[in-house]
Each structure stands twice: as structure tokens, then as C-alpha cells.
Specification:
Elements (H helix, E strand, L loop, with lengths): L1 H47 L8 H66 L2 H6 L4 H75 L2 H69 L33 E5 L2 E4 L7 E4 L2 E5 L4 E3 L4 E9 L3 E8 L2 E11 L6 E2 L4 E5 L1 E2 L2 E10 L2 E3 L9
Antiparallel strand pairs: 1-4, 2-3, 4-12, 5-10, 6-7, 6-9, 7-8, 8-10, 8-12, 11-12, 12-13
Length: 432
């Protein structure tokens, strides 16, 4: 019996181990799926704007992103190969343990059958029962035989189950070997594609290096535009916050008077109702509790990190913060948000409900819309046209304009501010 329970424990332990590996497998498959979506997104936009993107900063940024996605694809495939190696080792280990347990159980079962056949020559089951010295002993012998028979059935059933598990593990091992070889072939193919992309990247960079003075001039204009954007948004936020402070200051005395009048009216009403109820001999009235008016001001933006909708359907072509220029390596560029490349004339939408704080036109960034969400602000720069107006309340995913061209590509600059602090928008955006 000890061997039987040990076998059951081994089976459950094996299943638990494979369940744990399955979680790792699910995570890897999810990452692979998301990366393939990114590759498809960049490829789609590159195809749609190929003519306009010849040797431009927008083109090189898209190629750089595609190279990064391709490298991720290869790394994920290599991770998959390593995971398959671990899974194969676990399968082989499980096979060895199951085989040992099966042999042990088969040996024990054979010994049981042998003992039974040997004893049956000496004494039949009926003889074993009726040779009892008392009714109690007869009953105990009957229960023993019943339990003995049931144990034999369970042993035989477990032998069959383990045999099926071993066959299943053998099939899984064969499938893993085939998958592993397929992935090795995929890595070889994808590595060649990556080399082709890098070669294309080198050609574009070489072409752009011949336009160094032009690129430096464009960079200067871009820095001026971003500085103007920073100034415009800062002033708009400062103006709005000062207006709120002024409004609160003016309303304090009025709100106190209103509160005192409200309390006086409530007391008069309660006294009047009590007097009426005394006259009509009814039960005392309960105190009236009035609810405060609900404010429509949105205060939930900060709780929606990693859940915001994307402002436009596209891919991030330039990340937040300071980095090397994609062509002029001796120069640095700073981004207060993220650049998102999209299809031509793509719709740009509000990532969260709020109120339009400011609309401006900035040379180099076309139209700019800033939307307030309590103490947070989202900024949508480089819009071809604008569909909203200042102080307008907008809803989630409401279209506010369309994407304009920048650096030879349809692209917007998207920023998130918390008061006057610029935040990295990428962690705030949710899955598409």
C-alpha cells in the first residue's frame, strides 16, 4: 500500500511541475504574439508611406523600431528553444520516475497474483471464510477479501493509467523535438531578415549623413518648436491653476453664508415639522440629511496607469527622455513625451475624458491640443486639423483631430503632465 500511495504522490507532483512550466509557456507565447503585432504595425505603416519616407528621419526611426522588434523576435525564439530544452528534460525525468513506479507496481501485482494462486491450491475462498471460529471472524475475513480484491483492481487501473501517461509523455517529447528544430530554422531565417534591415538602415544613414547641415538645421527648428510647446503648455496650466485658486478664494465667504442660511432653514423646517406632528399626535420626525451635489470634475486619471487608450493607432517611433540622434551620433535629443507614427490622415483621439485646456499653433508642430484631467494634462502635438474647442468637455476616445506629417512621416508627439512635471507616457498606455 505504501508503494501505491507513493505512486499517486509522484503522479500529482509530475502534473504540478508541468502546470508550472505551462505558466512560463503562456507568458512567452503572449510576448511573442505582442511582438508579432508590433512588427505587423510597423510594416503596415512603412508600406503605406514608403514613397514619402525615402531617406528621412521618420523613415530611419521606423526602420530602427523594426530592427528592435526583429531582435526581440529572435530573442523570444531563442528563449522558446531554451524553454523547450527544460520541458524536454522534465518530460524525460518524469518518464524515468513513472517507468520505475510502473515496474515496481507490476512486480508487486505479479507477486500478489502468485501468492493468491499458491494459496488457492491449499484453501478456497469459501473454505477460508467458513474455517472461521466465530461469526465476527467470518465477517472480518469477508471484509479482508473484499478489500484485497478492490486493492487489486486499483493496482491494475493505476498500471493502465501510468502506461497511458508514459505514451503521452513520449508523444510530447517527439512534438517538442520537432518544435525545437522548427524554431532553430526560424531563428536562422529571422537573422537573415535582421541583417537585411540593418543593411537598409546603413544605406539610409549614409544618405542622411550627406545632408548633415540640413539635419542640424531641422534639429534646431525642432528644439525651438519643443521649447515653444513647453512654454505654451506651462502658461496654460499656470493660468488654469491661478483661476481655480481665485475662484476658491472668492467663493469662501459666499459658501459660508450659504451654509449658515442652509443650517437656519433646516432648523426652521425641523421645528415646524415637529410642531405639526405634536398637533397631529404622530411620531417624532427623523433628521433630514441632504446629499452634497455631485461634481463632474474627473479625478480618476492617476488611477489608470497602464490602462489609457492610445491617442492614435500606430507605433512608438521615439521614446521619452534624452538619447542619441538617430543619425548625428555626436548630438543628443530630448523628448518630453513619445512620438507615435501612424497611417496618413489617421484619427487622433482623447486618451481619457476631460476638458480642452488649450489649442495652439506652433511652427514645426502644427496644431497642439492640451486636455485637462484634474491635476493631469495630456498634450497632442502635430495635428493636421482640430475638431474641438477650448473649454469643451471631451469623452474617452473622442476624435480631436488628425495626424500631420513631421520628419517625412505621419506622426504625433504625445505628452502627459502631472501639474508641471512631464511623465513618460509609455507606461501609461494600455494594450491595443
Amino acid at each position: 500500500m505504501k508503494k501505491y500511495y507513493l505512486l499517486i504522490f509522484t503522479v500529482f507532483l509530475t502534473l504540478a511541475t508541468f502546470a508550472q512550466k505551462q505558466k512560463s509557456r503562456a507568458t512567452l507565447e503572449f510576448e511573442k504574439k505582442k511582438n508579432l503585432q508590433k512588427i505587423a504595425q510597423v510594416k503596415k505603416i512603412l508600406t503605406e508611406t514608403q514613397k514619402e519616407k525615402e531617406s528621412t528621419l521618420g523613415h530611419i526611426k521606423a526602420i530602427n523600431q523594426q530592427i528592435e522588434n526583429q531582435q526581440n523576435k529572435i530573442e523570444l525564439a531563442k528563449e522558446d528553444i531554451e524553454l523547450i530544452k527544460v520541458e524536454m528534460a522534465e518530460i524525460q525525468k518524469a518518464q524515468v520516475n513513472l517507468f520505475k513506479q510502473l515496474k515496481s507496481l507490476q512486480t508487486e501485482y505479479s507477486e500478489t497474483i502468485y501468492r493468491e494462486s499458491k494459496n488457492s491450491n491449499k484453501l478456497t475462498k469459501m473454505g477460508f471464510l467458513f474455517s472461521s471460529s466465530s461469526v465476527t471472524e467470518l465477517f472480518m475475513r469477508y471484509k479482508y477479501l473484499e478489500q484485497y480484491t478492490e486493492n487489486r483492481k486499483n493496482q491494475l487501473l493505476q498500471i493502465k493509467k501510468i502506461g497511458e501517461m508514459l505514451k503521452q509523455r513520449q508523444r510530447s517529447l517527439l512534438e517538442k523535438k520537432i518544435s525545437q528544430q522548427n524554431l532553430i530554422n526560424i531563428v536562422k531565417i529571422e537573422t537573415k531578415s535582421l541583417e537585411a534591415l540593418k543593411e537598409k538602415q546603413n544605406l539610409i544613414v549614409k544618405d542622411l549623413n550627406n545632408k548633415e547641415s540640413e539635419l542640424k538645421s531641422e534639429l534646431q527648428k525642432s528644439n525651438t518648436a519643443l521649447s515653444s510647446l513647453n512654454s505654451v503648455i506651462s502658461k496654460a496650466i499656470e493660468k488654469e491653476q491661478n483661476a481655480r485658486k481665485s475662484l476658491r478664494t472668492k467663493k469662501v465667504p459666499e459658501s459660508r453664508k450659504e451654509k449658515q442660511a442652509e443650517i437656519a432653514d433646516r432648523e426652521k423646517k425641523i421645528l415646524s415639522e415637529r410642531e405639526n406632528k405634536r398637533n397631529t399626535k404622530t411620531e417624532p420626525v427623523a433628521e433630514i440629511v441632504e446629499s452634497k451635489p455631485t461634481r463632474l470634475r474627473n479625478r480618476n486619471f492617476g488611477a489608470n496607469k497602464s490602462k489609457l487608450s492610445w491617442p492614435v493607432d500606430g507605433f512608438i517611433s521615439d521614446k521619452f527622455g534624452v538619447k542619441n540622434h538617430p543619425v548625428l551620433k555626436d548630438l543628443k535629443i530630448d523628448n518630453n513625451g513619445v512620438d507615435i507614427q501612424a497611417s496618413p490622415n489617421a484619427a487622433v483621439s482623447a486618451v481619457f475624458e476631460g476638458i480642452v485646456l488649450d489649442i495652439s499653433q506652433i511652427p514645426g508642430l502644427n496644431n497642439v491640443v492640451a486636455i485637462q484631467h484634474g491635476d493631469y494634462y495630456t498634450v497632442y502635438a502635430n495635428l493636421q486639423n482640430v475638431n474641438v474647442s477650448i473649454n469643451q468637455r471631451v469623452t474617452l476616445r473622442q476624435q480631436i483631430g488628425t495626424v500631420a506629417y513631421k520628419d517625412g512621416s505621419p506622426e504625433i508627439n504625445f505628452q502627459i503632465w502631472h501639474n508641471f512635471s512631464k511623465l513618460n507616457p509609455e507606461p501609461w498606455l494600455g494594450s491595443k
